[in-house]
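INFO worker-7 received task bundle
INFO bundle size: 2
INFO processing item 0
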Amino acid sequence: MKNKINFGAIIVYYVIAIICRYVAVKTDLLAGVESEYLKILLRGVGPAIGAFAAIKLFALNNPLSLKGIYKTVLVPFAVYWILPVVLISSVYYFTLGKFPILLMFTIVVYGLLEEIGWRGFLQNQLKSLPTFYSTAIIAILWFAWHLNLEMTSNNLIFLVIIFFGAWGIGKVYTKTGSLLAVAGVHSLNNFFVKGVHETELLIILALLAIWISFIIIYDKKTKALVSQTN
């Protein structure tokens, strides 16, 4: 029997996420915040607050796991956070003379705040729908949450990217159940604040190859252990 979709919880989640986003990017309420790192986090905190509020208000059985299928949280933390942070910070250092570890970790925490909402909560609430429909709903809501609603060519391209991003990150979440894993993948493009060029693209492709291989190998290893115990 398929789980019923709790539309009330989704509405509460999304209204809170939108309000927080609007306050952070469309008003001057954060003008007094001196830390740029804190400003980054406040721009992405809405989905997390909305998710926690909806789960609490509607008493939902909605698991939010950092480690997911992994035995310890250190595994996804090392593979999906430490690896990209160290790799990308090193590239920054050798190309720009900077070693922005704090910025890198701020970006993955930002990704985590978003992913608590989009994957941890919303994807879970829509899991009874066919993948295409749930992905389309998440993509549209996620696109609108950014508050860039003008139908320009750039925004239409961004919507397409959001759709495939929602599909790809959704696949990672389905396979791993780990918010740390999807936060790392989510943050991949955000690491490159000056755009994606040849070097950045190579890093993205390399990390994606490593992560996909890791997911496949870990999945096969887990299934082999299960078959041995049965």
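INFO item 0 finished
INFO processing item 1
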Amino acid sequence: MSDQPEGAARSAGTFGANDDLCLLSMRQQSALIRSREISATELITAHLHRIAAVDPAVHAVVSVDEERALAEAAAADAALARGEPCGPLHGLPAAVKDVHDVAGLRTTYGSALYASNVAEHDDPVVARIRAAGAIVLGKTNVSEFGFGAHTRNALFESTSNPYAPARAAGGSCGGTAAALATGMATVCEGSDLAGSLRNPASFCNVVGLRPAAGRVPNARSGFGWQPLSVTGPMGRTVDDVGLLLSIMAGPHPAMPLALDADPAKFARIDPADLTGVRVALAPDLAGTVAVDRQVRAVVASQASILAELGCIVEDACIDFDGADEAFRTLRSWTLAYLLDDTIRRHRESLPPSLVQNIEEGQWLSGRDIASALETQARLHERAAVFFDRYDLLVTAAAATPPFPIEQEFPPTIDGAAQTSHLDWLRIAYAISMTGCPALALPAGFTPTGLPVGVQLVGPHREERRLLAIGRAFERANAAGRRRPDLAGLARRGLSLIVNPD
């Protein structure tokens, strides 16, 4: 591994001089284009080269739209030369999670049942990103239908962790997180129900934000009045995430819970002064969830960083009683509705764990669902009371470091048996049940070099303050500047191409 965020690829003969561009921030890439030090065509070409060199070892990008991307880059360069107004993402390379539609591009939802599906329209967030000037290079790998925390499916190769290719990248945004970590894309979005933005960020040493419900349109969910699944940004830095949130956020006519606050407030956020900020530290939610001891150690060590920044750090946690059962009820209910036709027609083609979750949802009563919704409301209220006393809750972003890629989920965590693919996600979906925004960002590495992320949770709808705190933390903790061994990944990918067995 290299601790250098830029230039790590120069030692590999398969990389060109422009590849350093791929790990620059959104603002840095944009400034180079606007000053005409580089063209959008050069930037897009560099990213296409990075995909060709690295993705055979990572399997993060499942569909590439090279011809259209280069045509749009040429058009972006021509527009700039004519002096036309340019959007904030003008010419920047984007990748879209393969559960979100991009007009004219294959969208499979991680399922072989949709292997040949080509979307007719852009999803709302995709339309906003493209309208801001970003150029979609392709789609990133997901778990089947996006319901799973390990990016594997029956259609594509499982996404490998760029820091340890024999291990998982997390999910369901694992392809997105791996693409960001390796510089295959810069503008990336995703969705989060049980941690799909947060655990891949932890596994791949990038940043993921689960915003408050209604902040970003989520047309895919089909549950406009149920705020459990949200859409949000990912990036290599907190600043990138804030800038992208300013593009993605804002009301939408299809979303009854949409927030009407001006999204421009997220476009530039300075690091917060953390003097006197009241922090509740709970690496394992006060012992209520199993968290790997190495992860606990890394998260606990952040207390000294926060204290040095002026925070008042105490051991405390929200009361999450009832969150587990209520979340599983609402998730199964959602699955049973969304995939009802799919399970009736293609039951044998679906993963057993997904079939089980769908069938659990089919047996739910109205009373079961109402009880879960009541618990969700109570958790929201408890969180509001908690944040009257504290400004920030700090936990692990994922309960374990990246686990072996052949496993569906870790069988044990710190001696505690994990009996299903949901058990190890408790630390993420407990936060989902409160409706509070949560920011996952790099915190450190295990002794063997596996990434560990920290989860910063703030009061409801306070994403701007949360991002400002995240920027201050990020500046004090250099873990996010450590990048994968790109040259090693390129050699590994070339070996896999030459020797596919």
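INFO item 1 finished
INFO post-check item 1: The radius of gyration is 21 Å.
INFO post-check item 1: The chain has one domain: 8-498.
INFO worker-7 idle
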